[in-house]
Amino acid sequence: MKNLLWLQGGACGGNTLSVLNASDPDLFTFLFTHNVKLLWHPSLSLDNNITQILNDIISDRLHLDILIFEGTVIMGPNGTGMYDIFAGKPMIEWLRKIATKADYIIAVGSCASFGGIPASEPNPTESTGLQFHKKDCGGFLGKNFKSRKGFPVINLSGCPVHPEWLLTTLLLIIEDKLSQEDLDEFNRPRLFYSTTTQFGCPRQPYFTYKISTKELGHREGCLYFELGCRGPYTRSSCNNILWNNQSSKTRVGTPCMGCTEFDFPSFNFFKTEKNRSGIPKRLPLGVSRGSYVTFSAVAKASAPQFLLRPLVRKGKGDWIE
Amino acid sequence: MNEKIISPLNRVEGDLDLKVIIENNRVIRAYPMSRLFRGIEIILRNKYPMDSLVITPRICGICGASHLYATAQALDMAYNAYVPPNGVRLRNVMALAEMAQNDVRHTYLMFLIDTVNKKYENLPFYKDMVLRWAPYIGSSYKEAVKWSKKYTEIYAIFGGQWPHGSAMVPGGVTTDPYYNDIMKAKGILTHITVEFLEKTVLGGPLYQFLEINSLNGLEQWCTDYPNGDLCKIWNYGKDMGWLELGRGSNYLMSFGHVPLAEKYVPGNSKLMFDKGIINLENWEKIDLDQNNILEFVSSSYYTYDEGEKIGLHPFDGETKPLPPNASSSKYTFTKAFRYKLGNSLIAPEVGAISMLTVGGNSLMVDLVRRFKSNVLLREIARIIRLALIHKIIMDELNDYDINKPAYKKPDEVNTTRGYGMLEAPRGSLGHWIVIKEGKIYNYQIVTPTQINMGPEDPFGNLSHLSLSLLGTEVNDVNNPIEVAHVVRSHDACMVCNVHFFDSGLEKMVIRL
Q1: Does residue A5 belong to the interface with chain B, where contact is any CB pair within 8 Å?
Q2: Closest Cα partner for B316 from B291, B288, B338?
Q3: Which of residues 66 through 125 in chain A touch B, CB cutoff 8 A?
Q4: For [3Fe-4S] cluster, which residues are the binding ones (chain A) (predicted)?
Q5: Residue in B130, B51, B69, B498 with CA at minimum distance from that of residue B255
Q6: pLDDT digits over B424-468, tens only?
Q7: What's the rounded Cα separation, in Å, for the pair A272 and A279?
Q8: Which chain B residues contact residue A50 at CB under 8 A?
Q9: Domains parsed from chain A with CATH numbers
Q10: Would you call A143 an interface residue with chain B, using a CB distance cutoff of 8 Å?
Q11: Does domain B2-292+345-508 have CATH number 3.30.470.20?
Q12: ipTM of predicted assembly, 2 dp
């Protein structure tokens, strides 16, 4: 039996709702099958005995195997944490004590991982992530923090987290199969954060031949060159492990917003920032400016004709570059 | 006298603290307190208007599509955008799919599980309630877990992902579906209709349920289809006194919802569910004018430059936050929403019950005429709405013209303003945006939970939730389940409370 506690800080609840979308297995089947006891969850628990549960954990009467935290850690105003009062105290006071009692801690979503939207400038709530503040290791718990099993906070960034990312990570922990080598430099499981959003994107051929779509609302063309898609440099598995069993942002013509990255939200969405020579400021992951320019020229000249027109519908292809 | 602070009150979206004062087993005062502040909208200031399409859905994990739709409408108005009928249809499909998901999850995961409370242990139908609605193990609970996520699949086919997609944009939607997408969405919807809505929720055929237009019809339905949860909620709820519980405001308000695809005009669309306010005392229908919306801060952790007595319209909103507990008369991060009606300020109720009653649904109107507003009718309203949503989504998908576009690029305007108003799952939601020199100068949001659960205004008028709790009889002060029913029947969304501060330039998001 593993005890799991889920708390929310400066959260929208999106990770909770996302996990309720888990299908095979669904959340409750997962918990039952793997003998996990959900001690308490703000939206799901019948009873309202959280204060006692927290006190029991702090006084070692109750063992906490896994703590899941959703939302930012709110330090404001002026470091008091008073912008987030939970069960009669600032959440940071509970969190400081509970964190030392957990075998593993998982930060679900970009808020708990990196601070997310609330921590972006001017950060009015003094929000931070559990163990990162944007790209810097530290956050609320500090750079050297380890949970009882010797792990740093395991970050599952994304706005929200995909249910499959979370349940798989939980399973690895429950079955004692997770090692620190499985985590990347942001303490995220490499399994889900080593590929870019482009992996599996149906628009990849358009990217390859540098064929841009100039406006929203079209199935064809790449969204990176004009419309601000962050897919080529955002590490996520969104186009491999589809959302809600169906789709992804880029599949429905919405540019990737880079929500799994530490700098989310980087703003100026729906628009590709370029330098004076018209090259996107942010290049695909691992590609140098020189290679990009050389490769683009060749790619553009080699573009197959059928990619320059709508694939299925007749009509002018003037939305394509 | 017994003062009870329920902190946190769980099973609402986000955390809510509630202070109730109980005397002789009756609630004599009630203070809903928002105790969390997220500050999202301060961050929107000086950003590009299109950025709000990414940020505002993330105000709320359960109704992000409603925020997105409001943002898209506000930008439509600001840019004077033309939205092709296909674009309106897909927006409607997405918003309603999310609403259906919400209504199912609210009903089963957050509200009905309170029926296993020990207060009801000796009722003859207690065992049936436990078998159906107990958390994790109840037969209907399990069905709700299984099927509620299917609505999000419909959303994702057009919106990419749920929660937090950004596929609605000024001018329409980003998506460009083919026949297979439309077919698949309809297939999923039909599957939910047959396997969940008709079997578990309604207990009988949808088309027949939609013909019901009166209390008699509902009672007949319960005779004909006694095994659906609808019948059980209605009959058990009546027996448990829920028709008399949690009355509240005399006014039901709706911002109106679901624009007709061919008649979409930002701010002035023909709607499937009309906007307005209904006075429950005399059934007068009052036209809704967004100019009459005001927010007050005398009981909230803010100050206004012009003093505590004034109310500000969202376009001119101004909120300067104070640290919590700085003043004994202030107790919440939620501002008080008031609608100016002649010389008085009213604090209306919003939610499914208001949307359907103001919108003219004849079954709902008949029920509310007879029983006013209460815990049971709020729950029944969500089920009626769920049935209606199934029909509307199917109609919109059937009417989608695959050979026409769903997006037309608008011309961005550098200095302009606009608003978007609609019905989110929990009630009326409005976004107001002011754009100056191509950047967001002011972005304000009024949310349903703020409208229902704000504090009193400077003139001592209480908000709807406080009114609905007043006089509530609490059987056992150590088990105030009646109070929980009243609060949860509003499907409170604590993550949605939003405000501005500093000369209306900045705003913040508050979780109760």
Answers
A1: no
A2: B291
A3: 72, 74, 76-78, 80, 82-88, 117-118, 120-125
A4: 238, 256, 259
A5: B69
A6: 999 999 999 999 999 999 999 999 999 999 999 999 999 999 999
A7: 9
A8: 8, 10
A9: 2-191 (3.40.50.700), 195-320 (4.10.480.10)
A10: no
A11: no
A12: 0.97
